[in-house]
Amino acid sequence: KPAMSTTEEGVSADILESEMAAAKAASSAEETAGAASLEDEATKELEAIPVQGSNRECTFILRNEDHTLGNALRCTLMRNPRVSFAGCSVPHPLTKEIHLRIVTVSDDVAPADCLAEGLRDLYASAESLLHQFDSAYDEFVASNESAAGDGADVKINIKQEFMGSFN
Question: Could you tell me which residue ranges the DNA-directed RNA polymerase RBP11-like dimerisation domain spans (predicted)?
């Protein structure tokens, strides 16, 4: 057996060192677990929080989105006759998430179904806008042949950026 050194209190220094190493390892494991749970939270893009006692009310948390999508989606949802209320809020300007509250007209209509329908309608509107942009741009290029060289690159970049946000 190796000789053990002792501290003034009579406790073995080797035991103290091993306990400190174990405490550091446990602390490191807790930090790693905490970081993993934060990553799990961050990867949840959509979370539904139903209102207790009601099948027609739900708050959806959309992560990695901001008021730009939220307000457009709220307006799209309010056009749906099955939705009686749609509201959007950003809980904090530094947090990249929106809270979207949907209240439907009856218990037979699920808020999640209205959200899916609203997202499809908004996507269709964006595609229609993009088609109109393409048509107008092609018309512009045809009437101004000199603008075709520089403008073609701009059109491609705008289209890729715009449609990339939906993927």
Answer: 57-130
Residue (of 42, 75, 83) closest to 61 by Cα position: 42
For the segment 56-111, what is each residue's pLDDT rounded down to a tens digit?
Answer: 999 999 999 998 999 999 999 999 999 999 999 999 989 899 999 999 999 999 99
DSSP-assigned letters across all residues of 105-127: SSTTS-HHHHHHHHHHHHHHHHH
- Sorted by where each starts, the structural domains of the chain and their CATH numbers stand as 43-145 (3.30.1360.10)
The Cβ-side half-sphere exposure at 134, using a 13 Å CA radius, reads: 12
18-67 pLDDT, tens per residue? 556 665 666 565 555 555 554 555 458 999 999 988 899 999 999 999 98
Four-CA torsion 106, 107, 108, 112, nearest 10 degrees? 100
